[in-house]
Amino acid sequence: MERNTPLAGRVVGRGAQIEPPNRFERVRIEADFEQLEADPHAVADERRLTTELFVDATQSIISCNDSPDIPFRYSINPYRGCEHGCAYCYARPGHEFLGMNAGIDFETKLLYKPDAARLLRAELNHPAWTGAEMIAISGVTDCYQPAERKLRLTRSIVEVLIEAQQAFGVVTKNALILRDLDLLAEHGRRAMFHANLSVTTLDAKLARDLEPRTSPPSMRLRTIRELTAAGIPTRVMVAPIIPGLTDSEVPAILQAASEAGANSATWQMLRLPRAVLPIFEDWLTKNRPRLRDRVIGHVQSVRGGKMNDAEFGRRMRGQGEYAESIGHTFKIFARKYGLDRGLPAMDTTQFHPPQSADRQQTLF
């Protein structure tokens, strides 16, 4: 029988505290806790896990999706897995395709694409690419997660996109985006770049427990302030809204984002696909035990009595009276704080193929 294996001791600075079984594998290894308990040094080592980086040798970089719930068709994800460790992250099950688990592996074993810029340059030079649609960076995992400080893959991608005058946007919850303000500001002022900042809560303690390696709420608001001050159209994403835990914060988040200069706002309901469900339930049990039953009850109330609903048209917003109440509250306060308008249209007419890699080499 498959079961979720708890980690030996509490892992410091990580969101997942279990190793859910990989749905694609019949055989799995479980820790021998009796042996670990006999060796206190082994238990201590388990409590602080370092991040491991692995090369992703993929030969393509621009992904295409046809989901009716996603507002963009093309995206780039320089990383697989995410060090932020958000307990609710819907992208976790993707790690199972790599032979890893969606729990602690997702946030400690990252794959990165060292050839991202070269691949992007080649794809933008393909005759079929016209630049007529924007590209979203971070359609799945955060492109400005901590590993980016060292690897700088996102910055190399941004450099190629700007050289090609390609319209693009970024979705992140990390203030590291400000490192690239020197590149992004002019592109934003020319209507070819949008920034999207996710703000889940204004409670610093809750954010630290729920999203252990992200920027704290105050830093995200400062990031919004600096992006908009630089002339970059910026949207706050109240996402995910966790019924019974963060839904009451919607008015305050929208007010704070408006005061920070945000131009627009959107929201998404909590999603708990596959292995994300036991990870999030375990997080609730260990971090907010007194709220566990209430949160689970509210999640079921917006998911037709279930804990998740993958149906297009419902998965991002939920259904039922409680979901409608959340949506209504968001709409009222977004209008009150001037965040109910969309971002300005992107200019996708300036694209031209960047210098090819072969041409670059001849210059040297």
Describe this protein's structure.
By secondary structure, this protein is an alpha/beta fold. Helix content is 35%, strand content 13%. It has a seven-stranded mixed sheet, with helices on one face.
Give a quick rundown of the structure.
With 364 residues, the protein is an alpha/beta fold. The protein has helices at 33-38, 40-46, 104-108, 116-124, 148-151, 153-163, 181-189, 204-210, 217-229, 250-259, 276-287, 292-302, 321-336, 357-363; strands at 5-6, 18-19, 52-55, 62-64, 74-76, 79-80, 109-112, 135-137, 168-172, 193-198, 234-241, 264-269.
What Rg do the Cα atoms give? 21 Å
Query: Widest sheet: strand order?
Result: 4-5-8-9-10-11-12
Query: Which spans have pLDDT < 50 for at least 5 consecutive residues?
Result: 32-46
Q: Write the element-wise H/E pattern from the N-terminal end onward.
A: EEHHEEEEHEHEHHEHEHHEHEHHHH
Q: Determine the fraction of residues in helical runs and give it as a percent range.
A: 25-40%
* Coarse morphology: globular
H/I helix tally: 14
Alpha-beta content class:
alpha/beta
Largest sheet data: 7 strands, mixed
Distance between the amino and carboxyl termini: 60 Å
Oligomer: single chain
| Total strands | 12
Which band does the percent of strand residues land in?
Answer: 5-15%
Average pLDDT taken over every residue: 92
